């Protein structure tokens, strides 16, 4: 799978970087790197819509001319993987969790260590939403719980769920290569109770779950939220992320109509995680 890398140069990075990321996320860009004065965004070649991107920039220029210039380049799969490796630094989530790559050589660690070979999948702990999800999970009771991880990516959340004591984990991703990557990482971390599945809502088993994890973009979450609610045991928890703080009210309102009680919200650099209980 090839990716496009979009580099956007901003004249007012401090006030506009989060706004640009939000707009690009709505165009199906999947991951972002923000370092003043530029934002880099990545999207699968098959998902890229050049006309929509051009229309976005034209609209922005009429509203506020903050985009000085932008460049787009195609990253072949093998180069994409090499780029991940070159940029994948160890991630520490508090003092209790660290996410590392197989090639890292680090001193011993008393907490939970998760070894991830990211390939093209999302979820290394670098992104704010993955960090938020991991931190929230660490504060919960996963002992002997049945867990659903939707949009599993690298499998980092599923692996953490097993390390926290879950007895059965179903990890689902709509991208076949992500499901394969999740399975590989589960094996790499000696996991025993993770089943990695390629698919969407139709792939969710006809069972009830104690905890559902979903770190996906807002529009997908809105469409899938009724299914999550239907698959939750009474007293089950739902953790949602993949969206900005500005999107939380909309998701809370939808959850309320599905008998999901809002429990907590945590934020990190403009991104949010929401926790609900049925």
Short description:
The chain has 278 residues and is α/β, with parallel strands linked by helices. Helices cover 33% and strands 33% of the residues. The longest helix has 14 residues, at 13-26.
What would the principal axes of the Cα set say about the shape? globular
Task: List the helices and strands in order.
Answer: EHEEHEHEEEHEHEHEEHEHEE
Number of spatially distinct domains: 2
How many helices? The count is: 8
Class per helix and strand makeup? alpha/beta
Stretches where pLDDT is under 50 for at least 5 consecutive residues are none
At CATH level 2, the architecture of the largest domain is 3-Layer(aba) Sandwich
Strand content: 25-35%
State mean pLDDT (0 to 100 scale): 89
* CATH superfamily placement of the largest domain: Vaccinia Virus protein VP39
Largest pleated sheet: 7 strands, mixed
Order of strands, widest sheet: 10-9-8-11-12-14-13
Radius of gyration: 19 Å
The first-level CATH class of the largest domain is given as Alpha Beta
Helix content: 25-40%
Q: Count the strands?
A: 14
Distance between the termini: 38 Å
CATH topology-level fold name of the largest domain: Rossmann fold
């Amino acid at each position: 799978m090839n990716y496009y890398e979009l580099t956007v140069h901003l004249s007012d990075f401090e006030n506009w970087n989060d706004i640009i990321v939000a707009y690009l996320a709505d165009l199906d860009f999947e991951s972002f790197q923000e370092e003043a004065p530029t934002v880099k965004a990545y999207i699968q070649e098959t998902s890229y819509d050049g006309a929509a991107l051009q229309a976005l920039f034209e609209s922005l220029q009429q509203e506020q001319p903050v985009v000085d210039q932008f460049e787009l380049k195609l990253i072949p799969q093998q180069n994409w993987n090499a780029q991940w490796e070159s940029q994948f630094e160890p991630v520490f989530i508090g003092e209790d969790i660290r996410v590392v790559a197989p090639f890292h050589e680090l001193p011993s660690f008393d907490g939970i260590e998760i070894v991830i070979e990211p390939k093209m999948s999302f979820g290394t702990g670098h992104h704010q939403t993955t960090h938020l999800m991991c931190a929230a999970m660490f504060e919960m009771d996963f002992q002997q719980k049945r867990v659903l991880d939707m949009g599993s990516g690298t499998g980092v959340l599923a692996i953490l769920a097993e390390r926290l004591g879950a007895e059965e984990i179903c990890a689902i991703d709509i991208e076949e290569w992500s499901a394969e990557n999740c399975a590989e990482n589960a094996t790499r971390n000696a996991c025993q109770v993770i089943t990695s599945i390629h698919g969407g809502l139709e792939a969710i088993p006809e069972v009830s779950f104690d905890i559902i994890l979903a770190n996906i973009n807002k529009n997908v979450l809105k469409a899938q939220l009724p299914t999550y609610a239907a698959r939750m045991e009474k007293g089950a928890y739902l953790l949602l992320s993949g969206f900005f703080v500005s999107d939380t009210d909309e998701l809370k309102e939808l959850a309320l109509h599905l008998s999901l009680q809002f429990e907590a919200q945590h934020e990190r650099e403009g991104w949010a995680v929401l926790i609900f209980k049925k």
